[in-house]
């Protein structure tokens, strides 16, 4: 893919203090990929996103032309394919480094590190006291968490984060390397590993100083600071070009709908077990949703792509919604809940 074919407009829908959004922002800055941002409220509703025919409620989402991508893992994979003249951040396929990168991704997200990090948010944060925010997150997680339950979870969360930092301190960072894969600059492996710890280190009161600090984990904390310095330096080097323009929901909608698709219609692999089970074929009406959080917000549309790693659904608004197979569920729109 040439840089010319990569230059479809990129729109990032996010809010600035989302730790998941930071993953994508860091990636874009470190690679120098231009984009615009459409800032969103931290709670529902998000009419800017709904106008795209998208009900998915997690942040961030990213569009490349008329293709809209869900889940930061898939978003970063797609960005790796753009701008071939710019050095990629990911390790080469088929290498030990790629295995480390993917394992760190799974460790932070599926391994529970982020969930434990979220349990360490200081309860006196103003946003956490807002009844609207509390109601929104109850919908997001599928149930209200009381202060008593949060307090009981905190010691477990501290222990898990402490153990995770100890793993990095005594293995991948033990030899004093600057970056996880011994690269000259931060790589995707660093993004995959650093983000929950970077988030917590920047939240006063999140981590008990007598349990988790730079004194106990000097290599980890130095790595976090080094990573932030590298991102800041990359942004400074690019100057104004690194600062994304903020656009309104109307502008973002117009930009996306007037663009070409980023990807050709890949079609539906009839051999896929999920296609066989539900009798799915290209053009069928389907329902799609994440299985871990935000699962009450389900997208429907026309199935236009299905493989072992990705599903593509075209919404009524005319955009193609891409989701990873991992962590998402797909079924025919008319299927009853008993056929899950």
Automatic annotation (TrEMBL):
InterPro entries, per the entry: DUF7962 (IPR058268), Glutathione-S-Trfase_C-like (IPR010987), Glutathione-S-Trfase_C_sf (IPR036282), Glutathione_S-Trfase_N (IPR004045), GST_Omega/HSP26 (IPR050983), Thioredoxin-like_sf (IPR036249)
Domain GST C-terminal: 102-248
Positions of transmembrane segments: none
GO CC field: cytoplasm
Pfam families according to UniProt: DUF7962, GST_N_3
PANTHER family: GLUTATHIONE S-TRANSFERASE OMEGA, PTHR43968
This protein's name: GST C-terminal domain-containing protein
Annotated source species: Podospora didyma
């Amino acid at each position: 893919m040439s840089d010319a074919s990569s230059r479809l407009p990129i729109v990032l829908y996010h809010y600035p203090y989302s730790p998941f959004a930071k993953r994508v922002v860091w990636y874009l800055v470190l690679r120098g990929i231009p984009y615009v941002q459409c800032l969103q409220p931290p709670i529902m509703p998000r009419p800017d996103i709904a106008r795209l025919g998208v009900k998915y409620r997690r942040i961030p989402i990213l569009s490349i032309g008329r293709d809209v991508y869900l889940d930061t893992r898939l978003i970063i994979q797609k960005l790796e394919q753009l701008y071939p003249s710019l050095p990629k951040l990911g390790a080469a396929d088929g290498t030990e480094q790629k295995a480390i990168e993917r394992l760190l991704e799974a460790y932070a997200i599926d391994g529970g590190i982020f969930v434990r990090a979220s349990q360490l948010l200081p309860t006196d944060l103003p946003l956490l006291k807002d009844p609207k925010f509390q109601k929104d997150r109850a919908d997001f997680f599928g149930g209200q968490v009381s202060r008593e339950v949060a307090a009981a979870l905190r010691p477990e969360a501290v222990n898990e984060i402490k153990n995770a930092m100890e793993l990095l301190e005594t293995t991948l960072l033990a030899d004093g390397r600057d970056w996880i894969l011994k690269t000259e600059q931060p790589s995707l492996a660093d993004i995959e590993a650093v983000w929950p710890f970077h988030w917590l280190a920047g939240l006063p009161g999140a981590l008990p100083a007598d349990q988790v600090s730079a004194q106990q984990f000097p290599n980890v904390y130095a790595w976090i600071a080094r990573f932030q310095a590298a991102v800041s330096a990359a942004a400074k080097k690019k100057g104004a070009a690194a600062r994304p323009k903020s656009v309104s929901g109307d502008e973002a909608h117009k930009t996306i709908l007037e663009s070409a698709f980023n990807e050709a219609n890949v079609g539906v692999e009839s051999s896929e077990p999920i296609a066989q089970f539900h009798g799915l074929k290209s053009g069928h009406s389907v329902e799609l949703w994440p299985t871990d959080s935000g699962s009450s917000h389900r997208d429907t549309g026309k199935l236009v792509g299905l493989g072992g790693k990705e599903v593509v659904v075209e919404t009524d608004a005319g955009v193609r919604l891409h989701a990873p197979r991992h962590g998402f569920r797909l079924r025919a729109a008319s299927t009853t809940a008993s056929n899950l």
